[in-house]
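Record type: monomer structure entry
Structure origin: computed from sequence
Chain ID: A
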Amino acid sequence: MPAYAAILIRFDPLACDHAAAERAARQLLDQGPGANAASTLREVLVCYDGDLAPDLARVAQATGLGPQEVVAAHLSGQYEVVMYGFAPGYAYLAGVPDAIRMPRKPAPVRGVPAGSVLVAAGQCLVSTLAMPTGWWIIGRSPTRILTDRPGRA
């Protein structure tokens, strides 16, 4: 069981005051992780080849692993969504194995394509929009993260 809890709270401050929202959040936290939500396992396909993984060799060099060992480590991670934010569909995933944890890049890179598989520190995500990032780009995914049909990945 992870040692963290994450909940997303949406409320209308004109219809509910902050104290009531806090009470409701504390009740949810007291119930324990996952008490009100069923987990759903999702499969995300990733290609780690060539131009689709421009930082793979640098991650390998920095960690003392070979590129295939970085890929194997990434695939061995037990990922869990811990936060949504920053951009539409950005699901921050905890669970990056210690062997490939890297700090953020010193400077962001512009024009990173949607579908890029990114890692930084202990987190991973699949970008949903073309945008700049300071995370390490280790692959690309054709899996649609944002969809117009509920329940479909």
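Annotation 1: Residues 105 and 151 are 34 Å apart (CA to CA).
Annotation 2: Strands lie at 80-84, 91-94, 109-112, 116-120, 123-126, 131-133, 136-140.
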